[in-house]
Amino acid sequence: MSASYHALMARTMAERGFDHPIWELNDKVSARELARLAQVRAPRLLQGPCSLRAMTPPDEPAVIKPVHGCSARGVVPLLPEGDGYYNPRTDEHLTWEQAVAQALAAKHTERNQRLIQRGHPDALRPPWLLEAMVRDAVTGGLPADWKAYCFDGQAYVILHAYRAASGDLRLQWWDREWNPLGDICPHRKYTVDPTLRPPRDPDAMITAMDSVASLVDSPFIRVDLYEDVDGPVFGEITPVPTGNTLRFVPEWDRRLGEAWLAALQ
Question: How many helices (H) and strands (E) does the chain have?
Answer without folding.
Answer: 6, 12
